[in-house]
Amino acid sequence: MHIPLIRRGTLRRVSAWRRHRLAGAAVVLVALTAVGGAYAMVAPNSAEADNSQSDLVDKGHKLFLVGCSSCHGLNGEGVLAGNDEQNYGPSLIGVGAAAVDFQVGTGRMPLAQPGPQAAQKKVVYTDEEIEALAAYVASLAPGPAIPAEQYTDISGISQEDLTRGGEFFRTNCTACHNSVGAGGALPSGRFAPSLDGVEAKHIYEAMLTGPQQMPVFSDAVITPEDKRSIIAYIKSVQEQPDHGGFSLGGFGPVGEGVVVFVVGMAALIGAAIWITSSGVRVGSKRE
Amino acid sequence: MSDEDRPGDELEPRDEHEAEPEPEQEPVPDPGFHEHGPRPTDLDPALELRAERQVSGMFGLATLLGLGFCVAYFAVPEDKTILGFNALNFTLGMTLGGSLLLIGMGAVQWAKRLMIDDDIIEARHAVASSEENRAEALEIVTAGAAESGLGRRTMIRNSMLGALGVLGLPAIVVLRDLGPLPTDESLRTTVWTKGMRVVNDVAGTPIRPEDIELGQLVNGEPSVLVSTGDEAVDEENHVIEGIEQLNAKAKAAVILVRMRPDEVTPPKGREDWGVDGILCFSKICTHVGCPISLWEQQTHNVLCPCHQSTFDLADGGKVTFGPAHRPLPQLQLGVDDEGYLIAMGDFEDQVGPSFPELG
Lengths: 287, 359
Known about the structure:
The structure holds 2 protein chains of 2 kinds. Chain A is mainly alpha-helical. Chain A has helices at about 10-15, 25-65, 70, 95-105, 125-140, 150, 160-170, 175, 200-210, 225-240, 255-275, and strands spanning about 80, 85-90, 185, 190. In chain A, the strands form 2 sheets. In chain A, strands 1-2 form a two-stranded antiparallel sheet. Chain A has a two-stranded antiparallel ribbon with strand order 3-4. In chain A, β3 and β4 (about 190) form a beta hairpin. In chain A, α4 crosses α9. Chain A is elongated. The N and C termini of chain A lie far apart (about 135 Å). The mean pLDDT of chain A is about 85. By secondary structure, chain B is an alpha+beta fold. Helix content of chain B is about 35%, strand content about 10%. In chain B, the strands form 4 sheets. Chain B has a 5-stranded antiparallel sheet. In chain B, α3 runs antiparallel to α4 (about 85-115). Residues about 1-10 of chain B have low confidence and may be disordered.
């Protein structure tokens, strides 16, 4: 059974309008209105995001001019100094947000004084300021970004990943940072710092950017998942109880030998003196 | 030369003094024994009682700690910690150690405060045994020699000496285990061959030049030595395993580093051994063969943690410090059809420590 949904007259009328000379213009108008309306629903958000991002970069630029530009140049281009044109402050173009977050977030920057290597100090910028500085430096040129939280959150890591992280750690990190991440000495007053208590994010950023003498370990060669395993391994080693007594920093036989010699010998000498002394006497003058 | 005019005689003028010792003239006068007064505990019964209580207190505490050890052994869980130490080890050590220490301290205190307190002189006795004993010993030896017929039965004596003497030979013969010198070229070659991919150690993934950033260090291995965990890939790479793999790995491990090409001064004939500033060097120190990957990206020096040999990788692996005297061997790099880094052949120089036949 056929039920006509639209009366024939209506259909005929639409068909007639289709050939009207203003029909094309009307369709374009309707389409434009629809697109414009749809854009209006999305546009305010992205415009807001752009604004806040550029606000952040502006804020970062202001902070940079005050705190960083004396060494790194007004536009982060670096400053050359001295006859041999050594870096007074290196160029920050392309170092990315990760480098800023690491250097400023661990208190290495701003540098208090030149030396063999930047020392870890009290962090002088707030988290918001560091974010702004990182946004500004990241805006100079593409560079490594601050790692996503999924790669620095090590909760729920599997035993398999932890073991693999240990293999990567022993292959790539222990040469400088010691088998339990206690750090170690380098030539000319430099050193590989201890990894004890370093935030997961900062460990990741150090691998990614290679601060100072540390080599870079790019995500292409050591994947973000493997970096997460390495961080988890470092943390698990540090959380292990000292089954054998004092670890003495985990520096190995030299440090342990010194302690045994100094403390152990002192205790033995003290005991020997106590055992052989003749004690208090009445009415005698001790030689 | 007669005994009388030996020059050494002039150096013995002290004989006269020793013959007639004059105590007054000694540089340090003999102090003798100091005056031996009584101890407070010898005079005051209250102090004596106190000392007695101290000593028995120490022994009593040692008893409790000894029992405490037994209790802790069963009662303290293995997986708890005290002050960052394993709780079980900590309590067992503290109780047993404390118990032993208190027993010792109690004994010393007892001897010092309460036991009899006289000075006695015990003269040293002669080192040699008495004449009587020595004669007896000699007699036993002579009698033994005579009774066993050692002098008379020369055949037995000589065959016994022969048997004992030959026992020295095995000790000499096994010295051959120090050798033989390898007759093949295994000391001079590694598994690297032309076209073999350099893969990331542990992961086993091949590496493209663009994966390596400026200032990057990669611990690498030849693809035949690292299992990727994927059997098909391993088979394609002809991955070797077991002892053979370990022996090969000890020589073939490499480090890849990327430096700015203008910072690198390649030795003559090695200008094209890198790929865009990526250079590949042996990871085995040329001093005594420690693995080295302690690379400072700004100085380009790689440092051996064992004896501080330092090699400048921007300068052909030249030794800049330390006991090593051969530069770090360099591996020529290339890129294969698929864009991965490959070796262009084996090391030209000797990998690992020097040895006498190296020349």
